[in-house]
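#dry-run=false #mode=assembly
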Amino acid sequence: MNTTQKESSRDQKWLENRFLVLWKDYFSDIPMVSIKIRFGRNAYTRLGSIGYEKKTFGKSTMITMTGYFKRSEIPDYVIDATIAHEICHYAHGYFSPLPKLHRYPHQGSKVDDEMKKRGLVQILEKQKIWLKTNWKEYVKNDIRKRRPRRRRRGLSLIELLLGR
Ligand SMILES: [Zn+2]
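#status=ok
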């Protein structure tokens, strides 16, 4: 297996293509007004997020995927399910010109229900299993590196609670 070749294929163009294919196959009833997708930093708790693009002063929506997803060893369905999750938010009126369907973006299991309704149940289940089995192990070196900073913050919180 030529992993180098596979890795280099997970670029911006690849990401945009996955996004467009998913939209066409599962969200064609949702008007695509102005929305972009990109890779962000290597975030291990936020795999995907949606917001307004700062550069366009909120005229465009931006979906940001964790930079980890550039790595070829992460299965395509993990990325697809994450993209679809963010498109569901858009469809529900979050960071989009569409009417807001409910008060909180993750109210109940609104996003998962939407994915199931649209025939994305299989990739959703596969994504959950893969993440549950692999993600912690996959990012553990990065978590270890950042831990000291977090511990310091935790201590000062305890001090605050004790009134010191
Ligand atoms: Zn979400």
